[in-house]
Amino acid sequence: MITFEGVTKRYPDGTVAVDDLSLQAPTGAITVFVGPSGCGKTTSLRMINRMIDATSGRILLDDQDVRAIDPPTLRRGIGYVIQQAGLFPHRKIVDNVATVPYLLGWDKKKARARAMELLELVGLDSKLAGRYPFQLSGGQQQRVGVARALAADPPVLLMDEPFSAVDPIVRASLQEELLHLQSELHKTIVFVTHDIDEAIKLGDAVAVLRVGGRLAQMADPATLLSEPADDFVREFLGKDRGIRRLSFVPATGIRLGSVPADLELDEDTRPLGWRSDGGLLPYGTFNPERDSLRAALDAALLSPNGTAIAVDGDGRAIGVATRDVLDEALARHGTRPEKRVPDPDREVPASDPRRAES
Amino acid sequence: MITFEGVTKRYPDGTVAVDDLSLQAPTGAITVFVGPSGCGKTTSLRMINRMIDATSGRILLDDQDVRAIDPPTLRRGIGYVIQQAGLFPHRKIVDNVATVPYLLGWDKKKARARAMELLELVGLDSKLAGRYPFQLSGGQQQRVGVARALAADPPVLLMDEPFSAVDPIVRASLQEELLHLQSELHKTIVFVTHDIDEAIKLGDAVAVLRVGGRLAQMADPATLLSEPADDFVREFLGKDRGIRRLSFVPATGIRLGSVPADLELDEDTRPLGWRSDGGLLPYGTFNPERDSLRAALDAALLSPNGTAIAVDGDGRAIGVATRDVLDEALARHGTRPEKRVPDPDREVPASDPRRAES
Amino acid sequence: GGSDPLTSATPSNAPASSGGTSAKVVVGSFNFPESILLGSIYAQALQAKGVTVEEKPNIGTREVVYDQVKSGGLTVVPEYIGSLLAFVDKTSTAKTKDEIVAGLQAKLPAELGVLDPSEAQDNNSLTVTKDTAAKDKLTTIEDLAKVSKNFVVGGPPEFKERQEQNFKDVYGMEFKEWKPTGDTTADAIKSGTIQVGNVFTTDPKIVLNDLVSLQDTKNAFGSDNVTPLVYKAGVDDTVTSTLNAVSAKLTTDTLLSLMKQISVDKADPPVVAKDWLTQNGLL
Amino acid sequence: MNDEPLVRWDWIARNWDNGGPSAIRTLLESHVVMALLPVVFGLLIALPLGVACARWRRLYQPTAGLMNVVYSLPSLVLFSIFLSFTGLTQSTVIIPLTLFTLAILIPAVVDGLGSVPEHVRQSAVAMGFRPLRRLLQVELPVAVPVVLGGLRVATVSSISLVSVGALIGQGGLGNLFIDGWQRQFPTPIVVGIVLIVLFAILSDGLLVLAQRLLTPWSRARRSAA
Amino acid sequence: MNWLIDFFGTAANWSGSDGIPVRILEHLEFSAAAFLIAALIAVPLGLLIGHTGRGGFIVVVTANAARALPTLGLLVLVVLLIGVGTVLPVLIPLVVLAVPPILVNTYEGVRGVDADLRDAAYGMGLRGRQVLFRVLTPSALPLILLGLRLSAIQVVSTASVAAFVGLGGLGRFIIDGLATKTYSDVIGGAVLIALLALAVQLGFTVLDRVVVSPGVRQVR
Ligand SMILES: Nc1ncnc2c1ncn2[C@@H]1O[C@H](COP(=O)(O)OP(=O)(O)OP(=O)(O)O)[C@@H](O)[C@H]1O
Ligand SMILES: Nc1ncnc2c1ncn2[C@@H]1O[C@H](COP(=O)(O)OP(=O)(O)OP(=O)(O)O)[C@@H](O)[C@H]1O
Ligand SMILES: [Mg+2]
Ligand SMILES: [Mg+2]
Predict the structure, then answer these.
(1) Going by DSSP bridges, is the β-strand pair B2-10/C152-155 parallel, antiparallel, or unpaired?
(2) One biological process GO term for this chain (chain D) (predicted)?
């Protein structure tokens, strides 16, 4: 648990970057700081590992004031990932990852073994270990950055816009990777971004900051979407709040009807299309075990008759949700999505995204 | 009209960047090339203004083979905008914009007057004219880049990921700006991006390329979303295809009911919330004149009772769309959204986005 | 000038003890080939007698070298008695060899001494081209003094300072301009940049370039016999007797022929020195 | 001017190693010492000074100004000034050349440290490096390409400048220039120039090699830049 | 200080054909001539090679080797080969000295211009030559000027070797002062040379202000 107690940062030039900030980042959860440029996200983050010292107020790491800890020692226990990865250009990937273990005086072999393990964990081929950073793509470098931050198994991870320099496709995969990692590691993560979609996708709790470094709202993403505290937050959340918060409602609750006759199936009962005069019409599918209500709605909208086809993990049709059933589900959960709570004890299989994110 | 006729580009090292590409970019429309990294978008674009020469095949600009035109002359008639703006650091903004007019031998006063006009057109304060590029933010530089490309009023504009270096918020505003400009200028634009959302937002026609430089599908965005040609395109389009294509259906067609009694209004008949025991509940609104079906659906999902409130331009409630009405509209338009056709003759007022984009 | 930085020199290789054969003898030379040759002759002769020798050839002008000897940084340097006296006693009027040696003994500081002068002389001279000599009918410096106001004179940089007053005193001679031409003096005379130049009488370029040295009828330059200048504390009897034996064999003609080998035939000073020493039984 | 050939090969053969103080080999050896020691000393001094200048920027302006003045002094002047202090020793050449080297190396070290990307520095801090260790293990290694670039220029200049020392009797191969000049004899001059250039190219080549070996991580960047 | 007073305070030092003003003029004469020749050779060559990208490696290697050419050695060799009497023998070594910094900096300057900028320029329809002179050169100007400045300072300081072969210039005070151990002259000459170098430095600072676009200056 990281606690901000009335923290204020005033830079020597008079800029108040963070103003009386009080909040808690729960242990084992991802807390996202989000807000427009210059709202003090980076400053807040860097006060945790004392890259910047607060002007007033306290920051507690599990009840211990960070000010009481010698900064290098404090920092070795906190992973830190930044936008440009900040890899050491002169060290091979494996040694980059082993940096903190070396600092902590691990023996070289052990440190390297640990590094190799981490490279695998973040999904990098072990043959990249002997390369230098310039030989890696931006996305690979970011992965190395994450591995490096994890090397000494710190309980806390600070991430400052770690994915904002890579292209959207790679970015999405890095986000997935992070969620997947977190499902195994249960770190206490503070994540900074200015992208509200990323915040909602990743955050167990989202703190929206406004310029001047004041907290506008802190809530879990679903609550944030349904109940923005004020116009600033509403504006910041942007369009599609209603649709987006369906992402937090699992599709498991939907009452499925039996597969209707006009749905053409192949021999494995995988759907092929809706029969019609002009041939087969397009259809949409969702997996009630894994997907959210949003995916179900999308599937319904892709079918001409508004009926979403439920499929299992192998793509076999297991039932349908008609528009009426869907409407009912939407009415039931639409306005009050279940709160998501971080559940550090639940182990999620690697192949399975932890969330009901569509 | 720009026509690719069996165009192939093989680099000296043997890489085939573009393979037998045939397509047409219609006059007065925005044609977007989209596809994963390395699929030959840039190469295709640059063959149009002969920054790169095709290995075989022809590119026609209004029936004239570009190979028949001296490259510098050709290029002066084609605006070109790139990611990093490529502004000349040693020239003031106004002179940057006036580059091509100067090249064409315009007199200095006229060229500068034209530059000032363009700066205004792209939404830049005229007091920036005397600055140097380093004194501008990334977004402002991109705007200058666009202004510069437009300076000699070329009929054709080539844009290579022009907005990908700026942050998402600025990016969105640049996209709006481009649509707005295009609604006034009706250029023939070829726009390259690897972001499918951007492609769908901006394109009148979208060409999806696959690695190896082959065309996977070319269609207007709505068709693309409803009828992806194959798995590659479907994969590339990503999730929410059903919801996203609602963006292309205007909300005008929805039958509105009268404002129900349990909706609390202020004295100006602006909605305040749904009455309930626990106080006012959240609500969602849409503007049937301007918004799409997607916005209406979103509004419905924000209301506890699934009813979307229709408001006018001033935010006054003018009716409601109940879930049933909405379902009906969705059923009617859901699967076959109207095709969007570029309509160069229709003048759209500046304050009004041209599209039914939610 | 102001305070003199060279006097504060504290050379690292000053002899540790005064006298004694165990000490290393440092043989230096001026920055012209003849001096380098003489230095090499001294050094090899001493080496043959088992003296430990270090050579530092080609150091610089007398102004620089003198102080190094005085402070013990150099032990032996081939000198020219007339020029040396003029250097230590600007007012001296001594002209003959004996006068000069007497003058030196009186004026040299206690730590320095000269050994027996050799017969070999290498006088400074004023030299002109054959054409100039013919045109103005010049054979002596006296002849030159009559026309010298029209002439530009050149020589090593130190030439003006040393000789300007001397010429006035002895010949009443003044020049139109003094140009420091250094090692290019002979070429400068030939190319006409200067009309008169200060060239050593043993310089082979005089012959090579068809130049004429004017006779120093009034002995303005004085006798310039070659002799070793020594740092007294650094030399013992072996050194002294060896060098005196060398000087006894050196003549002006010897010097001229040796210098011709070096400058014209491009033979190397150490080799020339060695050959000569061998021929004269000094090795 | 006359029939003197540009190079008399037999002279070279005779004088390569004639045992005397003016043997080409001896001169070459002293040239190497007088050229390379300043570079070594210069590097040893420039590293701490450069680090200090990079750390306290206001120190840099005056230091750089002073170095500019030193650099604009003719080397002969510095040599002769030091002649009065260090006499006819190699130090008279080595000390001034060390100063010249500093004029090149201090900016190189400052620029080198400046070339360390801020995000690399920051992530070192964030990982818990203490300042000295950060300097030694991160900042200086990353600065190596730029510092080596300066070192190359310094080495080559130093090798070339030693020859001026011949004017005060300590010039290594430069003595060949004076010798050849006084005897109107091109051979020693040519030999001196050729040996100096060869020595410089060799040293430069070794430095390039060192750079390759020390900084495999910047090879691509260099060829791309 | 005494030396400076001796040197600058002696009226005789200020007049005549070997007075300070004449020496300064002579010094400037060969420095300027050598510098201009070097600039005329190196700037166009650097621009061309930087622009076409051909032969860049050779240039950098040769330039570094050329830095190693000892000025004194070249000077005496040239004098031996072509004789004294003109300034030519001094110009050759000085030009050799002055070319490498200009060439390398010009080349690096042009080559270092952002590839996107080049791209944008061609994309707008500038022809090769226009790209070079209107875009690359102005952008590379700070580096080109840096090369010119370094070179000019080296030339001014090294031009003193002219005195060694009997030519004039401020080197006379140094060489003659050394020969006659007149330290005031040596120091005086050195101070004058340092002042000239300082003036060159200042001149280039001013030039930089005037010719380099503020847009480019700030980027660096
Ligand atoms: N060292 C500093 N000195 C003075 N002001 C600073 C300093 N660092 C940051 N600021 C100011 O403090 C405010 C907050 O900065 P901070 O970097 O924390 O913002 P941010 O939310 O991370 O912004 P971004 O999204 O652009 O990274 C800004 O107004 C910034 O200009
Ligand atoms: N000059 C070149 N020589 C050789 N291959 C090249 C060259 N330029 C591009 N390519 C290759 O051609 C292919 C297409 O390149 P292109 O730049 O057109 O892709 P792109 O779609 O624009 O990619 P991105 O989204 O990364 O910009 C790639 O495989 C690329 O590596
Ligand atoms: Mg930040
Ligand atoms: Mg591209």
Answers:
(1) unpaired
(2) glycine betaine transport
